[in-house]
Amino acid sequence: MEESWLCQWSMIRSLLAILQWWSFNVTVIVMNKWIFQKLEFKFPLSISCIHFICSAIGAYIVIKVLKLKPLIVVDPEDRWRRIFPMSFVFCINIVLGNVSLRYIPVSFMQTIKSFTPATTVVLQWLIWRKYFDWRIWASLIPIVGGILLTSVTELSFNMFGFCAALFGCLATSTKTILAESLLHGYKFDSINTVYYMAPFATMILAVPALLLEGNGVLEWLHTHPSLVSSLIIIFSSGVLAFCLNFSIFYVIHSTTAVTFNVAGNLKVAVAVLVSWMIFRNPISAMNAVGCAITLVGCTFYGYVRHIISQQPPGTPRTPRTPRNRVELLPLVNDKLDDKV
To answer: Which residues belong to any copy of the Sugar phosphate transporter domain (predicted)?
Structure first.
């Protein structure tokens, strides 16, 4: 009886963790799009900077004040030698995501973000000369095909937004691959990652945001009709961006790898549906099919990764791959690119 109750509680806990993760993620995405489109605050660098500041303050409160998470101590030298380069790529990743969100619909942007597994595998193969099981390559085919179909049939296509989203995928892949080498020896969770990287990212982005968008922000402050309510929404998006990082930490510790992968892809579908209901951006039938193919491909990719990870070390590999050069799994956990 007690075991049955514990099993039910574990399922409820996992479901609640997934729902709160979905809620924060979708809310942050929709709020950012609302800020760009409805509030006409068309300054992605400034929005990113606000998110970094709120996240840095939030991480400090959680670790130093409330002590909900233990601080992972990093040597002062490693902060500049390891954390700073990671923060630079982290900053580019978030900025490109917000830039793409300004120019293209949420549905298109979220679908392109699903291209991250493919860019990660290709980068590791081209630059680091790592080899993968043939099933990993096969699982990328529906992802690439779905992205191509979605891009060709997108009714609100914008080349600048598309390129920003695509380079955002490359930045996400680069960030995760660099983390394997630069952060070797440190077991960072999402909260400690934000604690160390958000201040650096703010420092990196503050000057470009001031120079490129400062005058525009000042003009917006003087001319916007409902300033107070708009500023509340803008800064609330920064607070929710930090809450999203905390929710990622919670969902990872409450679900299995397979559940996390499936929930991550369903999260994209939920974000696409909710954004369409709010903004009513036109979506053709073929565009929806391309998005669905991409999400199914991402789920299949995650399933293949899980199957390979469960294989015992002596399992025979494909004869076309040199046995001493096999890298069965990509480094990236592809659903953690929500960090803001």
So the answer is: 15-301
**pLDDT range class, residue 41, cuts 50, 70, 90:** very high
For residue 31, give both structure tokens. Answer: 């709020």
- What mean pLDDT comes out for the span 37-47? 94
d(CA 138, CA 304): 9
Residue 151 scores a pLDDT above 50: yes
Give this prediction's pTM: 0.83
Other C-beta atoms closer than 10 Å to the C-beta of 330 total 24
The answer to whether the beta carbons of residues 45 and 213 sit under 8 Å apart is yes
Rounded distance between C-alpha atoms, residue 187 and residue 71, angstroms: 11
Q: What is the DSSP letter of 282?
A: -
Per-residue pLDDT at 321 exceeds 60? no
- What dihedral angle (degrees, nearest 10) is formed by the CA atoms of 121, 124, 129, 130? -60
Q: How far apart are CA 84 and CA 78, in angstroms?
A: 9
Q: Shortest CA distance to 337 belongs to which of 57, 82, 42, 109?
A: 109
Q: Among 298, 306, 334, which Cα is nearest to 143's?
A: 298
DSSP string of 151-189, one letter each residue: HHH-TT--HHHHHHHHHHHHHHHHHHHHHHHHTTT----
Q: Could you give the CA distance from residue 128 to residue 143 in angstroms, rounded to a whole number?
A: 22
**Cα(209)–Cα(202) distance, integer angstroms:** 10
Segment 243-280, tens digit of pLDDT:
987 787 777 777 776 677 778 878 888 888 898 899 88
Q: Is-contact 69 192, C-beta < 8 A?
A: yes
Residue 32 pLDDT: 95
Q: At what angle do helices 44-60 and 190-223 cross, to 10 degrees?
A: 140
Average pLDDT over residues 13-32: 89
- CA angle 269/164/340 to nearest 5° reads 65
For residue 33, how far is the Cα from the chain centroid?
A: 16
Give the SS3 label for residue 131.
strand
Maximum Cα–Cα distance for the chain, whole Å?
68
